[in-house]
Amino acid sequence: MKATTIFKFIGILFVVIGAVVGIGMLAGGFGSTERPMIFMGVMFLVMFCGIGGLFAVIGFRMDREDKKVLEQGSSYLGKILDYRPDMRVTINGAPALALVIRYYRMGEICEAIVNTGEADRSKYPLGSTVAIRLYEGKAALEPGSVSDTHIEREEDLLNPDFNPNVNVSSVGIKCPNCGANITVPYGMSRICPYCDSKITVDKNGRLVTGL
Q1: What would the DSSP string read from start to end of 139-184?
Q2: Residue 7 lies in a domain
């Protein structure tokens, strides 16, 4: 169950309990003119409805934000590189799961953190392909988009040594297997798009391997 659903369920449950019990106490207090019961009824209403309302508002607000991103955001295919804890939400005593997604935007590798609102990692295997939407600096996962679909140059997206926040220059290299000219970032590897050979260059731009 997603965190937004849990928040809304708890919130509505608290409001219902607070309203039923609180109104019952108020009715009993006014009927018997017992001031302590009237006071308890008011306190019950304020406490339970206040807490429940807060939970419900948080849940509906999170849902609304995700819906806005999904409706108006730009869509990108990316790869799940890593997991991060979402400290905003706790499920069964543990933080919810956030995904580190890498994707291509205008040929550049970019990174986004996408909150799932869940704690089950098995639903989001590392290396899987996902579709995300980006809008005004926020990211949301398109429902049901987790797959094993191949993405062009996905090996670069899944390279843990690459830092998308650091500008890395590239060098032109001739594939030793098929002779095709490709560009490889310094100190990284690329898979030749023509023969699937792995080509690695060192930090000085020299060819290391060509498998």
Answers
A1: EEEPTT--B----TTHHHHT-TT--TTS---EEEEE-TTT--EEEE
A2: yes
